[in-house]
Amino acid sequence: MTDAMWAILAPLMPVRDLRRGGRPRKWDDRLILDSIFYVLRSGCAWRMMPRDLAPPDAAHRWFTAWRRNGTWDAIHDELRRQVRVAAGRGPEPTAAVLDAQSIKSSEGGECRGFDMGKKTTGRKRHLVVDTMGLILVVMVTSASVNDRPGGRRILQRLAEAFATVALVWADGGYANSIDSSLLSWAKDKLGILLEIVKRTDDVKGFKVLPRRWVVERVRREALIDRVEVRDLRRRPVAAGW
Length: 241
Description:
Structural class: alpha/beta
Order of helices and strands: HHHHEEEEHEHEH
Low-confidence stretches: 223-241
Mean pLDDT: 83
Shape: globular
Largest sheet: 6 strands, mixed
């Protein structure tokens, strides 16, 4: 991280309570974060980190501890608020965009299934972003989970985390002429107006849809990052790289 990046993150890191005792830390938060970000960006195993970073066991231990005590969520939420305020918006969103994406996965387990619509075996990522494309809620299920039951679960999480959200845009997979119960359920149970943004039937190929392009952009960026990490794993290590 640059000094400017660390100046933003440093106030958001948890403060250690010295009254609880314990040994002084050997590795400061900045070095631990640099180590975690290296693994995240490169896709390497923890034990393959360069020696000028923190020891792999220390970096992994703090990564796990911060995940369990909610530090990562707290940092993410505060950074999102700062970005929204800097853009002239309120710190908390009032509208959001919902979408889901099935991704191929070779790993087994109960969270792996077959998406009949996309003909994909793997997992499904359910995603809610604000109107700027900043992530609000993410949920991962088996790819066999339909958009409508998956939509109920993630909208429930959205309502619990963001009471200010009153309007959500989604695609036709969440409601159609056969089953539109999700719309009434969201309005009656959660107080959220779920508005379906439909494609024009006579238009073929890709088309930018109002509001929904925001979440589509986020999905595309996540896909590009995943491809780059996969390529890094296959790329031979060149001298000095």
